[in-house]
Structure formats: C-alpha cells, structure tokens
Amino acid sequence: MPVASKTTISTLEDRAAHVREMARQVRIRSLRMVFEARQGHPGGDMSITDVLAALYFDAMRYNPANPVDPARDRFILSKGHCTGALYSTLAKAGFFPEEELSTYMQPLSRLNGHPNRNKTPGVETNTGPLGHGLPVAVGIAIAGQIDKADYRVFVATGDGELQEGSNWEAAMTAGHRKLSNLTLIVDRNRLQQGARTEDTVGLEPLGDKWRAFGWDVAEVDGHDHAALLPLLDGSQTREKPLCIIANTIKGKGVSFMEDQASWHHGVPNAEQFAQAMKELEA
C-alpha cells in the first residue's frame, strides 16, 4: 500500500498551518529555480502552489519509493508550464533529492520545462500543450471506476486553458459517467499569457458551466488552506465529479508580481530576486 502522505496533525487549523509553511518553502525554491535557470513561469507557479501543497502534504496518498504504486492517488498538472512549483513540491515530497532542483532546464536534466513522465518520478503524464490534462485524467478516472479501485484522480488546469475545447468534451464525459473519483482544480487567477481571461474569451459564469455538465462545484479562495483541505481530503461523499474553482492571484506572495500578466513567463533580475526572497522568507 502507498505511504500515506497525509499528516498526522488532527485539527484543521494545525493542518492548514502545516500546509501553509510547506507552500512557503515551495514558493521560495521554485522562484530560485526560475532565477537560476533564467527561464520559467513564476506567476503561475505562485498561484498554484497552495493547491499543490494541500494535495501533497495533506490530501493525497502516494509512495515516493514506488511512484507507480497501483493504489496511489493520481495528480496531473495540466498547466504544464508551471514546473517550478511542481518539481519543488515533488522534491519536498521525497520523489527525488531537493539538490536536483538546481539542474532545472539544464541540458540533459530530467527536470524539463514541461513535465515528462518518462524522466521525472511522480509525474503521471506529459503535459505542455494545454487542454490535454483533463481528458487524460478522465480516462484514468474511468479506469478506476471500471476496476472498482479506491484511488482518486486530481487535475489542475489554468483558467485560460479552459478556452481549449478538449476540456469541455472531457467535462461532458466525466459528468455523464458520474466520475466521483475525479477532482478538477481550476487555477482561477484571471490572467493568461499577455492578457486577462475575460478580455480574451469570457469564462463567466464559470461555475454554472460546470454544473450544466453534471459536476459538483465549489468556489473558494485558492490561497485559503483551511477552505481547500476539506474539499481535497476525501472526507466528503460525492456522486459526481468535483470542480473546485480556486480563486488565486498570479504571482502570489511577491508584491511586484501579483496580478501582473507580464510575470506569466518573466524572470526577475538580481535586484527583483532579492526583494522577492525577502518577501517570501518573511
């Protein structure tokens, strides 16, 4: 059986505090990776970090010593460009040494700019081209349903990514099959590359769209760990797939990055990096 990653901390307040600290550490390390590599997507890294921390340091079960353990929960980062946050989380969860993070995007490194399951332990499927993660997650959830397995499937998408039609084909299938083992987290930071989502292709009313496709919907502050954990930890019985619309801030935690489209794939200079580290380490 997989190693239970869930903390033994009992109270929601203490669990949230634990996850908050892990998220702080992931943010610090992921921004250093981007700075040293001189490439990456720090804005999205920062917005999705709290969701990743809630999954890997509280909600999910997995076995770092055997990343393909059949009984593990599955997570797919469909917004595959945010590998700074993903790799920092996987390393801290024990899938590979944290020292390896210093090789991010270097030649022959297994820590590519987009996740590759053939190279990186803990990566469930290759992502990068947007709109692919949810369809793959639906397929995995269907397999679990057929096998009567008790693993859960989680997938995180960007909100701009929902402009890809493949997501809605997958949503329709998941709703039809009542995939209660499937949870989608939408990183709703309202920014995509170069523009606001609502100025590009409007998504609202986003929750109603998912309900119309047969999903349960929860809308929360994506940086509020106490709100996220009960939705992710399996304590709630469901009969439908769940869409969590996590309202987040692109660049969360770094004042000059927050809510700025320019930090979708910006790289801080030395002065900016020093300021960011000061804010994140406070």
Task: Explain this structure.
The chain has 282 residues and is α/β, with parallel strands linked by helices. It has one domain: Thiamin diphosphate (ThDP)-binding fold, Pyr/PP domains (Rossmann fold, 3-Layer(aba) Sandwich). The chain has 9 helices and 7 strands; from the N terminus they run ααβααβαβββααβαβα. The strands form 2 sheets. It has a 5-stranded parallel β-sheet, with helices on both faces. The chain has a two-stranded antiparallel sheet with strand order 4-5. β4 and β5 form a beta hairpin. α1 crosses α3 and α1 packs across α8. It is globular and about 50 Å long. The termini are far apart. The relative contact order is 0.17. The mean pLDDT is 96.
Strand order of the largest sheet: 1-2-3-7-6
Order of helices and strands: HHEHHEHEEEHHEHEH
The CATH topology corresponds to: Rossmann fold
- Unreliable runs: none
